[in-house]
User: What shape does this take?
Amino acid sequence: MFHVKLHGSDAMARGADEKLVSRRIKLPKRIVEKPLRQVSRRLLMALFVMSLTVLIVWIDREGYHDNANGKVDFLDCVYYATVTLSTTGYGDIVPYSDSARLVNVLLITPLRVLFLIILVGTTLEVLTERTREEWRLSRWRKNLRDHTVVVGFGTKGRSALQTLLATGLSKEQVVIVDPSAKVIDIANAEGFTGVVGDATRTEVLLRAEIQKARQIVIATQRDDTAVLVTLTARQLNRGAKIVAAVREEENAPLLKQSGADAVITSASAAGRLLGLSVLSPSAGTVMEDLIQQGSGLDLIERPVNRSEVGKSVRDTDDLVVSVLRGHRLLPYDDPHASPLQLTDRVITIVRATPSSTPPVILGSAD
Assistant: This one.
């Protein structure tokens, strides 16, 4: 039986009070006007149409007949415009002259249609909003392939995602999973698709289309949650690359056994960087630069070029620090690292430059 050392509180646990109703997919919202502004604008348009109708009837009031007293005053014009635009039509005030009837055909009828469109427009928009969202969701599911799922949108998740975005990953290829609806709203505002729910549950990960994901970043705050999410994710997707973060170093082997390809011990990594900075502030600055992707120096993994095959690691144009040969990671000074082979991959330090085809990134901020 596994034993996981716990540390601190977790956003996954805090989200339990949000209940099961919050497990849903939330696509990034399109920029629209505020509802109050929309309603106010439509009311002003409706008042303008009504005022224009009253003015038209008032100008041609001699062509109208009131069954009550035969005369049409200003109040009668307002009354006629109201019942006409609302299609009520009591028939107590009617146009009887040719000019009045022609005006009704050419002007009043189009204004009536416009008035109804303005009033019904808001209702129609509400009724069609659900259909549009379902269509967008269906299209999103159909087009989503080889995406990145980030479980936990806290400090670690954000930092890891910033690193991936710096290498060319598009926001459309990212799905955030978090139990907090407020956190997902923030992710939506930044342009990410979000799934609200507990990532330890299979149905929540399936909503994130995790079975089609290429890579999964698990950045929860509790180690036991990370283990459960890793187990569930690996069960649903055997081929995805899973990278997980833990607080306690003794829990790292457990994450490996659960199916994680790489495990980062956040507390230990931060402590080592602090210790290095104490011994050498400059060395600490260099290390921080390496893990901050997209500026200064970058630590990357790339395949060996054909021109480099047969050469020593010291003869390459880039600064090679390790060679990945099969499942073995050889340091640059290992006698077996040279000569380089065509199937090798090298881990190098390069100057950060924009690239249309980004390499595999090794460093990520925690």
In short: Residues 6-23, 355-366 have pLDDT under 50 and may be disordered. Residues 263 and 365 are 13 Å apart (CA to CA).
